[in-house]
Amino acid sequence: MKYVYMMQGEPHPDRYYVGAAVDLKRRIHAHNAGESLHTNKYKPWNLIGYVAFSDNKKADRFERYLKTGSGRAFAKRHFLMGNLMLARIFRPARTAMQSGNAAAEKWVLEYEPEVRPAADPLMGYTSSADMRRQIRLEFDTSEEAVLYAERNGIPHRVMESNASAPKKLSYSDNFRFGRPEPWTH
Q1: φ, ψ for residue 143 (rounded to 5)?
Q2: Does residue 44 have a cis bond before it (omega within 30 degrees)?
Q3: With respect to CATH, is domain 87-159 assigned 3.30.160?
Q4: What one-character-per-residue DSSP string does 132-178 give?
Q5: Residue 39 CB-half CA count within 13 A
Q6: Do residues 4 and 68 lie in contact, with contact meaning Cβ atoms separated by under 8 Å?
Q7: Average pLDDT for 169-182
């Protein structure tokens, strides 16, 4: 008998691990003892579920499938998340059409998409049956957003924003001598 198991990191609820083992209890204990390099950073681990196979080849194929993109989506939909909605907290980047930072100062809490958008065969527009995409909350600070998520029991992850380094631009630099790219007209 071979088991394909799924674990979730206790201090990192957005971290999952899929593996296969003949002795499931010993393998879970080894993960939590730090004996595996891949899972040592996110321990302790909680067992979410497992599937037992009498055929080792089928177990290996199922483990490999769960580690692919569609397999992760399958596991997330059927085993891992259940009815929990994972939210991401981030500061949106300003669009290319903005010169100011007014719209990018707030922190946003929105749910990760559950279903990929698809093109409607009749009308041709892209849509999804995922109602979570309609929820978008804005906060002044990331701490407020995290506090809101924790108070309401929403599993979340904070995505830190990268600070942009503005370039010094001068119109006269377009015509300077020794410019790296010469004019072509």
Answers
A1: -60, -40
A2: yes
A3: yes
A4: GGG-EEEESSHHHHHHHHHHTT--EEEEPPPPP-PPP--GGGGG-TT
A5: 24
A6: no
A7: 73
C-alpha span between 148 and 170 (Å, rounded): 44
19 close to 60: Cβ distance less than 8 angstroms: no
What is the CA 68 to chain-centroid distance, rounded?
A: 15
Buried b (16+ CB within 10 A) or exposed e, 42-64: bbebeebebbebeeeeebeebbe
Q: Parallel, antiparallel, or unpaired for β 45-53 and 107-111? A: unpaired
- Residue 34 Ramachandran class (φ > 0 left, ψ -120 to 50 alpha, else beta): left
| Segments in 6-141 forming alpha helices (H) | 24-32, 56-66, 69-75
Six token digits for residue 101:
């930072």
CATH code for the domain defined by 2-80: 3.40.1440.10
How many CB atoms within 10 Å of residue 7? Answer: 25
Q: Other C-beta atoms within 10 Å of 16: how many?
A: 20
| Statement: the pTM of the whole predicted model exceeds 0.70 | no
Place of tokens 């209890």: 25
**pLDDT tens digits for 101-128?**
666 688 999 988 777 788 888 888 887 7
Reference 49, options 16, 73, 71, 22; nearest CA is 16
**Residue-range domain boundaries for the chain:** 2-80, 87-159
